Amino acid sequence: MIIDMHVHTRFSPCSVIRIKNLLARARETGIDGVCITDHDTIASKHEFEKLSDTYGICFIIGMEYTTTKGDFLVFGTLENIPRHMGINSLIQWAQKENAVVIPAHPFRKSRPVHLPILRSFNIIECLNGRNHDFENEACLQWIKEHGNGVKNIGGSDAHSLDEIGRIVTVFENNIYSVEALISELKYGKYAPMQRYD
Q: Which of 7, 43, 172, 184 is most buried, with most CB under 10 Å away?
C-alpha cells in the first residue's frame, strides 16, 4: 500500500491545498492513502469524514507537532493531545496513549530536530519532499552510522497539489485506519520511496 505520510491542507497556514482537491489529486497520482499532518491541528478531520468515501482514498489524520527541539509527526487519538508540550512530555504522552511520534525532516537546515534526541526514536522521516537532496542524504547517512535498526518513512510534505505523492512510504500490508497504521509502523515492513521529481 502506497501512502503519502506527510501532507498539509489549508488548515496549515503555509499550505494552499483544499481537501476536495487533495483527494482528487491523490487518486490521480495512483497512491492509496494520505496522512494529513497539519501544523498543531486536526481541524480538517470533519471535512475528510464527509468526502473520503467518494474518492476511494484512505485518509488518516495525524499532526505535525511543533516543539523547541524540532517538528514531529504524530499518529494516534489526537482529539485531546495537550498543546505546547516539550519533546520529553510528547514522548511520554505517546507511550501512554499508544501513539507514534516520528521526527520530521530531522536534518533540514531551517527546522532541524535536536540531534541528541534522535536516538530516542525507532522511526524517522528520512525522505522529505521539501528537503534538499543533501538534507535527505544526511539523514540516511545518520541512520546508517547511528540508527541500529531504526525504521524510516517518506512523505511529500506537500503544501501544493503538485507535490502530493512525490515521496511516499510503501507498506507491505494494507492500512485503513490510524490503529492499523500505528501497528504497521511499530511492527510491519515498509520503506520510503521517491516516485518522481
A: 7
β-partners of residue 124 are 152
Q: Please check whether residue 165 is in contact with residue 29, taking contact to mean a CB–CB distance below 8 angstroms.
A: yes
Distance CA 115, CA 191 (A): 22
Give the per-residue pLDDT at 140.
94
Containing 49, the helix (H) or strand (E) segment is helix 45-55
| φ, ψ dihedrals at 151, nearest 5° | -85, 160
Domains of the chain: 2-194 (3.20.20.140)
C-alpha cell at position 71:
517538528
- Whose cell is 489529486? That residue is 25
Nearest to 42 by CA among 86, 83, 97: 83
- Supply the pLDDT for residue 197: 62
| pLDDT value for 160 | 96
Between strands 190-194 and 2-7, the pairing is unpaired
Mean pLDDT of successive 10-residue segments in the chain (197 residues)?
97 92 92 97 87 77 97 97 97 97 97 93 97 97 90 97 97 96 98 89
